[in-house]
Amino acid sequence: MRGVIEGGWEFVIAAYVITAVVLLGYAFSVCWRLWKAPRHDAGR
Amino acid sequence: MGNSRWPFVTAGLGLALLVWGSVWGLFYAPREVYMGDVQRIMYVHVPTAWNAMLVLTFAFACAVLSLLRGGWGWDARLEAAVEGGVVLSALLCTQGSIWARPTWGVWWDWDPRLTTTAVLLFAFAGILALRGFVDDPVKRAVWTAVAVVIAYVDVPLVYFSVRWWNSLHQLQSTPETVSRAFHWPLRINAFGVLFLMIGLVELRARLAWQRRAAESAPPLPSGVAVATGRL
pTM of the entire structure? Predict the structure, then answer.
């Protein structure tokens, strides 16, 4: 026990994959909803 | 709300920066002495934390301006910023949990930083959910703004929790607390998330604006409604 963490790449990969999925998924969701939204002029 | 393409360009630039910073952080930045490769989670976790607080601060500013000046533009930006803040807060908790497992030995601990962040996530997610139940657009705008001003009290609590109370979580990541070798991938990813969220919040605000406009639009003539299959 030296207080040093060995390995752990599976956690690193999981964090980066989840980050990519969430950010890309949210970006796609916003673009999709905007594209599908009806076009009107707001009052103010 | 305009129709210009700058939010797409800004979001695209943000994604490109995120790819650059992540490749640097994963493959070129040195291993940290104690945490080893697990520390590389910092390059996505810390930028997410900074930008979650920034987006929610923008939501707070929109809430104050919505209350003081009115106007549907501020309400649309408020809705967009709250949703963006909820997405980043949820991502932040997930990344933190993944980092906690190999370093602390647990996925979750009711430590002050984690607890205040969870409160932040559920408070703003609750505001977003409740907003969907209010039909009157004026009441919806006012109630959302008031709720955001109240919920925002938790943001400084999250930031200072590691200094005010005993916490498992390390102190805030600043140039003084992070080694120089780790600065650049951290900065690049921070600007990557920032640009991405600027673009997405603007696009999401346009969506809120369109929905608000559709609410106040006069009903379609019955013949048109039948012809378009809306009834």
Answer: 0.89
B98 part of a folded domain: yes
| Distance to chain B for A32, nearest Cα, Å | 10
Q: Do A8 and B91 touch (CB under 8 A)?
A: no
Residue B231 in contact with partner chain A when CB distance is under 8 A: no
In order of B5, B49, B176, B224, the CA distances from B42 in angstroms are: 32, 10, 15, 55
Q: What is the DSSP letter of A37?
A: S
**Does residue B13 lie in a domain region?**
no
Q: Which of A3, A12, A39 is opposite residue B37, by nearest beta carbon?
A: A12
State the total domains in chain B. Answer: 1
- What would the pLDDT profile of B114-123 be if each residue is shown by its tens digit? 999 999 999 9
Domain that holds residue B48: 44-169+181-215
- Give the whole-angstrom CA distance, residue B14 versus residue B189: 8
Chain A residue whose CA is closest to B97: A15
pLDDT digits (tens, 9 = 90+) for B90-137: 999 999 999 999 998 999 999 999 999 999 999 999 999 999 899 889
